[in-house]
Amino acid sequence: MDQPEPNWLTAVRAAQSKKALDVVVLDLREITSLTDFFIICTGTNIRQNQAISDAIHVQMKEHQLELPVSMEGYDNAEWVLMDYGDFIFHIFVEQTRTYYDLERLWRHAKRVEVPPEPVAA
């Protein structure tokens, strides 16, 4: 029997469906109690970031029956933060991502390889 997809992976797939760029998953479980995973991605503009955020929201609600604990930055959308408790999803425009450089800030976290989507038979 197949294992269900982890929640963070459902969110990553939703972001990828809206053409999110440079998706990085950081495993923070061994270095902080803040959350288990950070997921970081880039959109090309504010509208795309809102579309990525909307897709994550819909997929998490429909497939994982989960809503974010909190969400910030949606209106401005240069940096949208979606907190699901066990993971936090960060959606940036490129300039803001470069400025805050979360990958460098959390450089001690393990990077998690996103598995390819299963091919439907």
Describe, in plain words, how this protein is organized in 3D.
The two termini are 16 Å apart. The protein has helices at 7-17, 46-63, 94-100, 102-105, and strands at 21-27, 37-43, 70-72, 79-83, 87-93, 110-112. Helices cover 33% and strands 26% of the residues. α1 packs across α2 (46-63). It is built from four helices and six strands. The chain has one domain (7-112): Beta Polymerase, domain 2 (2-Layer Sandwich), CATH 3.30.460. With 121 residues, it is an alpha+beta fold.
What number of structural domains do the residues give?
1
Please tally the helical runs, counting DSSP H or I stretches of 4 or more residues: 4
Q: So what's the overall shape?
A: globular
Q: Assign the CATH topology.
A: Beta Polymerase, domain 2
What is the percentage of strand-forming residues? Answer: 25-35%
Low-confidence stretches: none
End-to-end span in angstroms?
A: 16 Å
Radius of gyration: 14 Å
Number of strands: 6
- CATH 2nd-level architecture: 2-Layer Sandwich
Main β-sheet: number of strands, strand sense, barrel status? 6 strands, mixed
The class by helix and strand makeup works out as alpha+beta
Could you give the order of the helices and strands?
HEEHEEEHHE
CATH fourth-tier homologous superfamily: Beta Polymerase, domain 2
CATH class: Alpha Beta
Mean pLDDT: 94
Helix content: 25-40%
